[in-house]
Amino acid sequence: MQHRNIQRSGGQRIYTVNVRSQVMPPYGCPDIFPGQPCPTCPPCPCTPGLLATTIYQYTTFSDGQKNMYTDADATPQLSTSGIIGQQTVSIVNLFINGILQPPNSYLVQPGVLVLSEVPAQGAPIILQFIQITTS
Fold first, then answer.
1. Which residues contact 74 (CB under 8 A, 6 or more apart)?
2. Residue 109 forms beta bridges with which residues?
3. Does the domain at residues 51-134 carry the CATH identifier 1.10.10?
4. What are the beta bridge partners of residue 99?
5. pLDDT score of 51
6. Cis upstream peptide for 43 (omega within 30°)
7. 76-116: pLDDT as tens digits
8. pLDDT recorded at residue 134
9. Pfam families of this UniProt entry (predicted)?
10. Rounded-to-integer distance, Cα 20 and Cα 34, Å
11. 4 touches 19 (CB < 8 A)
12. Better-predicted residue by pLDDT, 133 or 66
């Protein structure tokens, strides 16, 4: 670490700035920061490998009347899956009209999405499913 003194005219020191000359990645992350060996430790806490993610998307549009949607309501051109149950994925995000919704405002079960309120007619409803697995 380098120290630099900033001084005013007249020689009075104002403050010291610490500058880190090299970024040191954390140990145990060789997959993210290649070339950094894991320290020897029994047992080794390193991750078992890279984490792989798969993202699925269910898209439909609100009819302005109902608050329950099924796989049959999907817009096939914009969807990569039906409604997946929360037990089989790591993360579920719901966007209505592009705004992320709080988890307590909807319920997701395999093939069914239940909303606490009816969205405005024509509002896009996008369910994003993120599945994280180890390689």
1. 58, 59, 60, 82
2. 112
3. no
4. 96
5. 82
6. yes
7. 999 999 999 989 999 999 999 999 999 999 999 999 999 99
8. 80
9. DUF4183 (PF13799)
10. 21
11. yes
12. 66
Q: What is the rounded distance in angstroms from the CA atom of residue 25 to the CA atom of residue 43?
A: 21
Placement of tokens 């395999």 in the chain: 110
User: Residue 38 has which token pair?
Assistant: 């894991």
| Tokens (6 digits) for 105 | 């405002």
CA 24 – CA 21 distance, rounded (Å): 10
Dihedrals phi, psi of 69, to nearest 5 degrees: -125, 145
CA atoms 39, 45, 49, 53: torsion sign: negative
Ranges of each domain in the chain = 1-46, 51-134
CA atoms of 9 and 106, how far apart (whole Å): 63
Nearest to 61 by CA among 106, 130, 119: 119
Distance, CA of 135 to CA of 111 (rounded, Å):
28
Enumerate residues 6+ apart whose C-beta is below 8 A from 42: none
4-39 per-position pLDDT tens digit: 545 555 555 554 444 444 555 555 555 555 555 555
